[in-house]
Specification:
104 residues, alpha+beta, two-stranded antiparallel sheet, 2 helices, 6 strands, 30% helix
């Protein structure tokens, strides 16, 4: 299994393989989820003081706040998929198990 990393702004990168949902922070249930994450110590604020535009929920229960919109993050993921399938572009970092030996 390889890790798929996506840049979400301000030199912050997340592993998309662990993401369950990306949503808008405007609804009451999402606001409650953010508050619960804050009280449980599972909130990760990656906005650098900017306005929160996306809430990312991971399979480990962590709640990540991002300053990019959900559409922008999804678009970057789609671009990464297109580049990765064509040539394994530089914006996608695949870390997989390999049988190759690294020379010392």
């Amino acid at each position: 299994m390889s890790l798929e990393l996506v840049h979400i702004g301000f030199n912050n990168i997340i592993v998309m393989n662990r993401v369950i949902a990306i949503g808008s922070p405007n609804s009451a249930p999402t606001k409650r989820t953010i508050q619960e994450g804050r009280t449980k110590g599972l909130l990760v604020d990656m906005t650098n003081g900017r306005r929160t535009k996306a809430v990312i929920i991971t399979d480990s229960g962590h709640i990540i706040l991002a300053a990019l919109t959900p559409e922008t993050i999804a678009g970057r993921l789609q671009i990464n998929h297109a580049e990765g399938s064509a040539e394994r572009g530089s914006s996608v970092l695949s870390l997989g198990h390999s049988n190759e030996r690294i020379p010392r």
